[in-house]
Structure formats: C-alpha cells, structure tokens
Amino acid sequence: MIGMRLKQKVTLLAVAAAGLFFGYVKSQDVPAAALSPVSYSHTVRHDPEMSLHVVRIALDDPRVSIHVSRGGPDPDGDGPWLTTLLPASEIAEREHFDIAINGDFFTAKATQDVEGRNTGYVRGKFAAPEGSAMTEGQLWHRATSPRPFLEIMAGPSARVAGDQPADLIDPTAREVIGGSHVIVRNGQAILYPTKFALDRHPRTVVGIAKAGRELVLLVVDGRQPKLSIGMTLAELAQEMIRLGCDSAINLDGGGSTTLVYRDPETSKLKVLNSPSDTVERSVADVLGVRVKTPLPTPK
C-alpha cells in the first residue's frame, strides 16, 4: 500500500511538471493580480483580405485609466479652432498613454478631405472635432448638432449615447469622445443606407462588453488590397457583436485609423496597424489608455 501511494505521488508530480512545461495551469491557480487587465490580438483573414486589431480593456481594474486628449493646445482662444493636429503616437507619448486610438472626425483650417500622401491633415494644422469632447471632467467642445459619443464615468463605467434626441452627457462623465454612428445598441446591429456606411474603409470603433466592465477597441486596416480591404459599418457591427459588445460607436476612420501600443520589451510606442496613407496621419484627438502594469507582448 505504501509503495502504491508513493507511486501515485510520483505520477502526480510528473503530471504537474509536464503541465508547467507545456504552459497550462488551471485558471483558479493563477493569482488575479498576475492577469493583465489588457489583451491584444491581431487577426488576418482571406477571401476577402482583412486585418483586424482588437484590444480588450478591463474597466473595473484599478490599474487601468481611460482618457481623451486633444492634439495640440487651443490655437486661437475664442476663435473657431480648438486644437492643432498631431499624430496619435505623439499625443500618446506626451500624455504617457500605453495604448491610443484615433478619435473623432474633425475639420481642419483650409483643408479638404484628401486621402493618401497628399492629405492636408498634417501636424500643426488648426482643427476642431465634430462631436463633443471632454477631458478630466472639462468639456472643451460641445457638438452643435446631435452626434453620438462615448463617455467614461467615474466608477469607472462607460456608455455609448447621443443617437437619441434626448441623450445628454451624463453629469458624472469624466471623459467624452464623439463619433459618427452608433452601430450596435442592446446587442443588435443598427444599419445605415448611406454610401459612407456601405463602402469598405479602414475603421476605428469602440464597444462596451461584459455589462459595462470591458472596453473593446477594434481597428480594421483598409484600402490595401493585398493586406486588408476594410469594412462596411454593417460588417463592423457584426464583428463587434461577435466580440461580445452590447453597444458600439464608430470613430473616425480612413487615413486617420491608428492603433498605438507600448511595446513591453522596449517601452517604446509603436503603430501596430497599417495606416492607409502609408504614414501616420495627424488627428484632432485620441482615446488613450494608461496601464500600471506591462502590456502583453503583441504577437
């Protein structure tokens, strides 16, 4: 009997050692503090070509904070412009963000909407977001007409609103960023019959999952036939539903689509997606994330 028990113990130790060697451990054996509040995945699909970058952020983890930041400072005081354009990576570096995506659609001084290398959306251009914008409880732009927005409240929690006439910014909101369309509401896709919605473009979208406890960032590359053709808003909505989102809002896209991520091995910020302008475009504002723990290494 003693020999049998000894043999069983040796066998169990061998199995445990094998489990560690092959890298699997029961989830309940992993301390909660060791789990990252952020995850990143990159998916490549074919027929048609598609490149998708997904970042999941645990809003209820105290090591995470979400922020909205404009590009440069207000360039003209009481004038019509509220910021100057800067690349998302430069804004993220200045604000010590570990993750950042481009924010709202915007207008820029004496600039037409041109894509590619000839875009007029360059560093230092006077600009203003089209939707509402709030940073650390200070509303620095209010939309002049109803436009959807994402708001982050103290707590923290998040909400997508603004697609209904009665929607107002919550009094407890700390950060607000605008977008063009609410594409998922109550777990259901909202469809739009416009050319902008039906054409495939590079896209940036933010969703809310797990009953408001998780923020989901999705960046889809586009306008690059060999890499990624982009998505329609309907395709984007279905993707966000697949990712478990109850609500989602479309942010600026096209050449503005950018995902900036701090490499845990070098501590340097880098652009993970492939901007369709071939270079990073300057934008009016970003949604940024600070994380008090090393990020997962992007694969």
In brief:
With 299 residues, this protein is an alpha+beta fold. The chain has helices at 2-22, 88-95, 195-198, 233-242, and strands spanning 38-45, 50-58, 64-70, 83-84, 86-87, 99-102, 106-108, 126-129, 133-135, 138-141, 149-153, 157-161, 173-178, 181-185, 188-189, 203-209, 214-220, 245-250, 259-262, 269-271, 282-283, 285-291.
Task: Describe this protein's structure.
The longest helix has 21 residues, at 2-22. A hairpin with a 6-residue loop joins β19 and β20. The chain has helices at 2-22, 88-95, 195-198, 233-242, and strands at residues 38-45, 50-58, 64-70, 83-84, 86-87, 99-102, 106-108, 126-129, 133-135, 138-141, 149-153, 157-161, 173-178, 181-185, 188-189, 203-209, 214-220, 245-250, 259-262, 269-271, 282-283, 285-291. Mean pLDDT is 89; it is low at 1-33. The chain is of the alpha+beta class and 299 residues long. It folds into two domains: 1-30; 31-291, no CATH class. The strands form six sheets. Strands 1-2-17-16-18-14-15 form a seven-stranded antiparallel β-sheet, with helices on one face. The chain has a five-stranded antiparallel β-sheet with strand order 3-22-6-19-20, covered by helices on one side. The protein has a three-stranded antiparallel β-sheet with strand order 4-8-7, with no helix packed on it. The protein has four helices and 22 strands.
